[in-house]
Amino acid sequence: MALGNGKVPGAPRTTELLRLATAGSVDDGKSTLIGRLLFDSKAIFEDQLEHVEAASERRGDGHVNLALLTDGLRAEREQGITIDVAYRYFATPKRRFIIADTPGHEQYTRNMVTGASTADLSLVLLDARHGVLEQSRRHAFISSLLRIPHLVVCINKMDLVDHDEAVFERIVEEFSDFAARLDVTDVTFIPISALHGDNVVDRSEHMPWYNGPSLLYHLEHVTIAADRNLSDVRFPVQWVIRPQSDEHHDHRAYAGQVAGGVLHPGDEIAVLPSGRTARIAAIDDGAGTELEQAFPPMSVSLRLDAEVDVSRGDIIVGAEDPPAVTRQFEAIVCWMADAPLRERGRYLLKHTTRTTKAQVVRLAHRIDVNSLRHDETATELGLNDIGRVHLRTGDQLAVDRYSRNRSTGSFILIDESTNDTIGAGMIVAAVKQSP
Amino acid sequence: MNAAHFELSHLRALEAEAIHIMREVAAELERPVLLFSGGKDSIVLLRIAEKAFRPGRFPFPVMHVDTGHNFPEVIEFRDRRVAELGERLVVASVQESIDAGRVVEETGPRASRNRLQTITLLDALEEHGFDAAFGGARRDEERARAKERVFSFRDDFGQWNPKVQRPELWSLYNGRIRRGEHVRVFPISNWTELDVWQYIAEERLEVPSIYFAHPREVFRRDGMLYAASDFVELIDGEEPFDASIRYRTVGDMSCTGAVESGAATLEAVVAEIAASRITERGETRADDRVTEAAMEDRKREGYF
Q1: ipTM for the complex?
Q2: Is the CB of B57 less than 8 angstroms away from the CB of A243?
Q3: Chain A environment of B192 (Cβ under 8 Å)
Q4: In Å, how far are A66, A305, B120, B121, B213 from B112, measured between CA atoms?
Q5: pTM for this one?
């Protein structure tokens, strides 16, 4: 296999970070595509390649099996399957990429949800010979559910359909019909051949009818800065910094990662759930510098101009557009445990930096991830099921709709007896409470 | 509002993520500890800890698992760096584990204390009651690590079970453990070797001198260069010679290979790493060469 196109991996320091999620099974060419991106950006090293060549030879694969690059665990190599989320890294002079690579089968829905939860962009791979399969629809649905802002549909193996524009157009139409039922705003279709490299890094000569960008060009240029919520200030407090040393006797700062909005010294804020207000006196970077502003996803600490009671689990918010403070809300939950979620089930719930008790009040419906149909007769959510539930919590929480803010709109459910993470939730609406 | 004004470079985004992870551990676990080897990755961890908790003290001590086969330059650097920070250093000694009969030293020309470290580490975690240990492992280092979570739960034998890992969603880490269990936490999981060097350059962090090109007496074994030292027996035919070398990783003198290099400054090192076609472990670590799944097997036994 050819090694690269001469791109320098030593990316300049001003590059942006883009997180992308892929999902797919062994035979749709996903491994080949990832291998191609890694090769051509020189993120695969010679010793890794030698290792894969030797392993392929030993297994009698008959070709350099790029799946062995990503399948890192003994059981995966032995069984030829991918059982978990694998993270891959590559860089071009424009961007640094993190790929969360997940298996595509239905029994791995929870892995897909995990990989998708932090992604800026989702890559869905279709085989040009087979068109839109159930699995592709599922990937697209999960991408939209987790509100990955950008969806890229690669129609792969175009070489096997004679690079035919009509085939491409037919699949685009079919997928678009389906996507219209989803909540996706930015969909890009790219005809590729991962094996031969057509439209992966460079534009293909075999498909002159295609005027769009190559995949890598698109990944390097898609605008992601605007995806963050920069209007509503959200700052979940993780840790209170109180040195109590002679030098910093009265220093009291609230440390956290900005989850929304832009903060400046002098801004008026409120602390939720208490609702007390103050102004930001200073923003510290932890290295001795006071900052003029802080925005997502910066980790900073805030000093306030007034003595207000603030502790871990509180959220500092702006004066405008505060989140709902509530003990009850509706959410879409992806279930990740063998023991099913049932009505009246009790769990721990972690929302931002606060962990509280929670109970399922009602299971509204289960969603069929293939047909998108809602089953309102469902009485439980099994492993990998997704459904809408009504929850109530022990503590008051300051929540946003997930569609408004992925940080303050999400939570995990924890089994108190095993300590396992058993569910992932996205808040749809706060439920009005009688006082 | 123009969103382009609020862009963060990839290094600053990775830094912010690592700071967040460290604070979550400090808040949710009882007795964390930060493992510091004197190597570049744990140097970055110390910097992240400063940014997470200053002007306060670190809410955890710093611990070094000392194999007794370390480079003297690294031990000197370790002591100086921790003293500058004014934090507490705990040293867990492999030599003491050997003396106490907890482990048996390997013998022969290829003997290494690498495996023995695991017992010393587990003993130290137990002795001090540490329930969380920060490590500088990165997912780009090795295939098994690529699948390990940021929070890697270990049973009371320190074992990693790759098939039952907790899902990690958004930045919501679940740090709950049972008595006797502990968690290894890798705040720079998503960094690459190049990111680490670029960060060191950008933050102007000091690193041990062995990372820069220097003359040293070395010998060649299995295609790699090793320092001639009291810790290694030479095999027939191995002849020490002088070369200009530097280290890409910091481990034991007995199993850490050097690379021939003239890179004497941070900028030259960053340029060399950017152009490298071989991974740092492939180039310099004999410990990963044993079997195809060497790292996975050692992790299952409680290694980092």
Answers
A1: 0.91
A2: yes
A3: 89, 91
A4: 33, 57, 14, 16, 25
A5: 0.92
